[in-house]
Specification:
11 helices; TIM Barrel; single chain; Lyase, Ornithine Decarboxylase, Chain A, domain 1; 8-stranded mixed beta sheet; alpha/beta; 8-stranded parallel beta barrel
């Protein structure tokens, strides 16, 4: 027997209801909970919400839209995005690359992690046809070039797309991504010059940070990217404005999508760099409203509820980041309506850090055995689940319910072709 055995960290989500081709025939959450009375967390995917968000973003953004797969790699989510018009995918691992290629043979895949293993580069290039790679160091540039030209690599029929990740100053986003990745001004300009002779297309990419509420962050980042391009003094074809587009949560009401796009458009016009096209890498913006989880109350102690999901499950952001989420009560037994109250949650593990203070607003009569639907977890919910303490069992179903909380600008959009600068 092999000394090395592969093990998935998390048990797969099983589907408690058969799925049908038509979204109109999908069940709603409340009827499904009353019928199934689930005793494990139930993840609910809203394909229509996800597809509509994709269409709205594609309509608003004057460039190519790359979905950030890390945000939610569930195949049902990816299929909903594809139905909404997404054809480009930002992948951060070879596992994500292989998943997208298996589901969508015609998809355009971009390997946007600034630090990749040599094996991942070889497989992406040779087996999956990936041609775009991000880097933020000279070492990574040499690594990419070494592996795509190695004797065991696929025949080099085209030059790669090479994209230099630029570090940004603090933007006030919920998560600052420039603390880990990105080259400073002078290094980024030098990397563009070093990459230019080897690149079929060359680009600058940045990320203002996850859940960024300030559209002006993109204005400032675009100006910095333009200055780097001019300092490099080499032709550049792409500016990738990254992700970070904020969505609504109970205590976060971001500007509408149009406000973010207006700043990007105005900043792009000010750069006056003919021939450059725009990319974006939304994740949360496309899928947050398209997912919820139904958890069951196992014990009530005052205004703290012990539920069967938590920070080691789908609610990691409610713990570490203290995000609040929209909630609604699904009673196990009919009872008269009660006034609302504020609650906190304890997750199912034996770890006292498995706590979510919220506050989460629910009727004051919540009791053991009731279910709570927790919304806006389509982003970084199911994909952050762990197997800690053995609480990794959960189910998944597609539903036709609308999002529990709407974000301005993500309503159904009429498809229009992108302008010339938006097609690569």
């Amino acid at each position: 027997m092999s000394l090395i055995q592969a093990r998935a960290a998390v048990g797969p989500l099983h589907r408690p209801v058969s799925q049908r081709a038509s979204a109109k025939t999908l069940p709603n959450v409340q009827d499904m909970v009353q019928r199934l009375r689930p005793e494990e967390p139930l993840h609910c995917i809203r394909p229509e919400t996800i597809g509509n968000a994709a269409r709205a973003f594609i309509h608003a953004f004057k460039g190519d839209v790359l979905y950030a797969v890390k945000c939610n790699p569930e195949p049902a989510v990816l299929r909903a995005l594809w139905a909404g018009g997404v054809r480009h995918f930002d992948c951060a691992s070879i596992t994500e690359v292989a998943l997208v290629r298996r589901l969508f043979p015609g998809a355009v895949i971009h390997f946007m992690h600034p630090v990749k293993s040599r094996a991942a580069i070889r497989e992406a290039w040779g087996l999956h046809g990936v041609r775009d790679f991000v880097l933020d160091s000279e070492s990574e540039l040499h690594k990419i070039l070494d592996e795509i030209t190695a004797p065991n690599a696929a025949r080099l029929t085209a030059q790669p797309g090479l994209f230099v990740r630029l570090a940004l100053p603090e933007t006030g986003a919920a998560i600052n991504l420039s603390k880990k990745f990105g080259a400073d001004f002078m290094d980024a300009a030098a990397l563009l010059r070093a990459a230019r002779p080897h690149a079929g297309r060359l680009g600058v990419t940045f990320h203002v940070g996850s859940q960024c509420m300030d559209p002006l962050a993109w204005r400032e980042a675009m100006a910095l990217a333009g200055a780097v391009i001019r300092a490099a003094a080499v032709p550049v074809e792409i500016i990738d404005v990254g992700g970070g587009f904020a969505v609504a949560y109970p205590d976060m009401d971001p500007p509408p999508l149009s406000a973010f796009m207006a700043e990007i458009d105005a900043a792009f016009e000010r750069l006056n760099l003919p021939g450059i096209k725009l990319w974006a890498e939304p994740g949360r913006a496309l899928v947050a409203g398209g997912g919820s989880v139904v958890a069951q109350v196992q014990l009530r102690r005052g205004n703290m509820l012990y539920i069967n999901d938590g920070v080691y499950g789908a609610l990691a952001d409610a713990g570490a980041l203290k995000f609040r989420f929209p909630t609604r009560l699904l009673r196990a037994q009919p009872r008269p309506a009660a006034p609302d109250a504020a609650f906190g949650f304890f997750g199912p593990s034996c770890d006292s850090l498995d706590v979510m203070h919220g506050p989460f607003i629910l009727p004051d009569d919540v009791a053991e055995g009731d279910w709570i639907e927790i919304g806006q977890i389509g982003a970084y919910g199911a994909c952050l689940r762990t197997a800690f303490n053995g609480f990794d069992r959960a189910a998944l179903a597609e539903v036709h319910d609308p999002a529990m909380l709407k974000t301005a600008g993500y309503e159904i959009a009429t498809t229009r072709p992108n302008q010339d600068r938006g097609t690569v």
